[in-house]
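User: I'm curious whether this sequence folds into something compact or stays loose and floppy. Could you predict its structure so I can see for myself?
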Amino acid sequence: MIDFHTAQQSQAIDRFAIETAGIPGLLLMKRAGLFTFQTLQNHFPKAKRLLVLCGSGNNGGDGLIVAQFALLAGLEVKLVMTGLPKNLKNEALLAYQELVQLGIEPSAFDTKLCEECDLIIDALFGIGLDREITGITADWIKQVNASGKPVISIDLPSGLHADTGRVLGVAVQATHTCTFLTRKPGLYQFEGSDFAGKVHFSTLFLDRDILNTQPAIAHNHSLKEWLKELPLRRKNSHKGSAGSLCLIGGDRHMMGAIQMAGLASLKVGTGLVKVITHPEHGIALTQALPELMCYPPEALDDVALNTRVIAIGPGLGLNDWGRQLFTQTVESPEFHSKAKVMDADALKWLAQFPQKQDNWVLTPHPGEAATLLDCTTQEVQQDRFSAIKTLQQKYGGVVVLKGNGTLVYDGKNMELCLAGNPGMAVGGMGDILTGTIGGLIAQGLPLFSAACLGVSLHAHAGDILAQQKGQLSLLPTELASILSQLLTYADSRS
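Assistant: Here's the prediction. I'll summarize afterward.
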């Protein structure tokens, strides 16, 4: 399991290690510098000329230590600092004094320094930055990015908000990021992944007891861990005991959406998948997937009452047809006790007719989340943690906020998915996820577990498909086939 902590929590852990556990701050700084230098050696063994950019805080101190190790290894080092050395304090000052003993003095920033170096070390700003970068330092960062030289950022790229992944005016485009003590959620949210490059993590050899002095704001469990939640099939299982799901959607011209949701439900092992859709779609759907049972809207009450879970939204549409099905699903007293998955157009209807239920999973992408919260997509993306918490407080149940670093939240537990890739940004992927989560709930998983396993299966399947075919040609229907392959890990338990 991987834990995530805010910048404030990370700073508190650092203080506890120094002030309570008695670990010298300079020792932690040297461990961070050594880890960064080892990353440099492992990934850029031919780099001989370094440009080290240092701020005036502890992050800058880490950069000064990297410069020390580089000089001792015989590399050529150019040092640029944002402030005067006399303004350095504590461990950063000690690190600078040691560096001076090795015969190096700061240089003024110049574009030629970027052009002449093999690699740049970014130690300008640390995790405490919460204001936009402007002025000369912003110009430096722009020139670093324009240079095209590889960059290793220390703790996180300068200019990236540690908690949200928001760019504070301008940010360093890192090739690699070495981060310490805790995982910063901003590296995996919003724009974080685009600026952080490959992330390397070190606890700096601190004991788990020290790292656990602050509660994590989110976790990441492996796919295999979530697969353990899937109930084992008894030998005398039958199609009814394997779960039953009612899928609702597929307005005219959107039959494919409900078909993909049905396909995914079958691929994850749902025993019975029944589809409520336009009568004109029934024959085509049955020809494409004979395993699906298709019914007209008039049969909704009978069908839904005889299934364990209702999933509504794929291709539902925003006309009267979709509104009637939505209203019937969420307002009928007979369905209140039914577990539900709400996606796509069902979420847009929910925004118009808001209510709160504890037994559903909502799966909005950022645009749908903005509609549900009556704000802009940008506002959602700039603080995804706050957005998902507000969504859950307003609508209840379990919320899946899709996107880079998909979040799952039930009011108490937060899961952050680290899998997935940009190639999954294609129409139909959300329909596959809806069918997946609905099918897992139908098989007996609690809502939160089903949402987390569904998101993890979906994201890992996307990564496998991207490795096989490349990111630019991913098809949701192909991804559905990978889901069943990943479920073989669950089969191996029996």
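Summary: The longest helix spans residues 447-469. The chain has a mean pLDDT of 95.
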